[in-house]
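PROTEIN DESIGN WORKSHEET
SECTION A - STRUCTURE
LENGTH: 260
TOKENS:
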């Protein structure tokens, strides 16, 4: 059971959350799918909930702030200084959607988009480090950018978070991994997605680990979800892409060995 209690290094996908128009429906779906329990962030948190596995935080679910926006999972990247990182977003051709602000004693955050319009969060840890469990059933396992502007993304994220990208493309598969600056660990992927319209929208896709991808897909369907990519084998393990009842998309991939 991989767990963490210290803040994540800068540039690491550290947290994911869902803005939901039907909070009770979202709770029921993910509890049924992953076995999540929920802990309230308190009255000051405006209904925001921490999804937990055995008492350790794995994701957030809260009321959607803008009902006109689609229901999506937002990926947050760790930062040592969210204000400085937000400035780098603008300098690198991105856009700061929500300027840095404090979240009680939990931390400090901002919402931004890259040069192709992919939205992501920036999180500077306070009492809340982000994900406390990972790489296991029901927890975040991988985070992946789908973009029509692959080369721009390869330049944008190292400028904002440091680190570097490594191209691992093969025929008909254009892909890079993003390595964080602190130790060179591969922490995210970048995919040239030609199915997207030329002008976007690019997006970050969160992948959850599953002990049995086929069974998880069957459960998602039974709970009112749908399947965008049927389960299939890949060099990284069996995988599928699903959509929740409120339209949010997420990936499922075989849980890696605990040592990874």
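SECTION B - SEQUENCE
RESIDUE ASSIGNMENT:
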């Amino acid at each position: 059971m991989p767990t963490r209690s210290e803040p994540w290094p800068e540039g690491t996908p550290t947290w994911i959350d869902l803005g939901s128009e039907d909070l009770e429906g979202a709770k029921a779906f993910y509890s049924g799918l992953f076995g999540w329990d929920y802990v309230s962030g308190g009255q000051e948190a405006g209904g925001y909930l921490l999804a937990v596995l055995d008492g350790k935080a794995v994701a957030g679910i809260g009321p959607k702030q803008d009902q006109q926006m689609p229901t999506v999972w937002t990926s947050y990247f760790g930062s040592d200084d969210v204000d400085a990182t937000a400035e780098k977003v603008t300098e690198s051709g991105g856009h700061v959607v929500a300027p840095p602000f404090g979240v009680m004693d939990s931390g400090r955050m901002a919402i931004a988009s890259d040069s192709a319009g992919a939205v992501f969060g920036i999180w500077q840890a306070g009492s809340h480090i982000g994900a406390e469990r990972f790489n296991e059933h029901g927890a975040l396992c991988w985070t992946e950018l789908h973009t029509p502007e692959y080369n721009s993304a390869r330049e944008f994220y190292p400028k904002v978070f440091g680190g570097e990208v490594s191209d691992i493309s093969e025929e008909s598969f254009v892909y890079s991994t993003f390595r964080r600056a602190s130790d060179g660990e591969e922490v995210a992927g970048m995919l040239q997605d030609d199915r997207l319209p030329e002008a976007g929208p690019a997006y970050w896709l969160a992948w959850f680990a599953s002990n049995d991808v086929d069974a998880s897909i069957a459960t998602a369907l039974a709970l009112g979800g749908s399947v965008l990519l049927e389960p299939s084998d890949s060099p990284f393990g069996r995988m599928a892409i699903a959509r929740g009842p409120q339209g949010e998309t997420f990936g499922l991939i075989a849980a890696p060995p605990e040592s990874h």
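SECTION C - NOTES
The first strand starts at residue 13 and ends at 20.
The CA atoms of residues 133 and 156 lie 28 Å apart.
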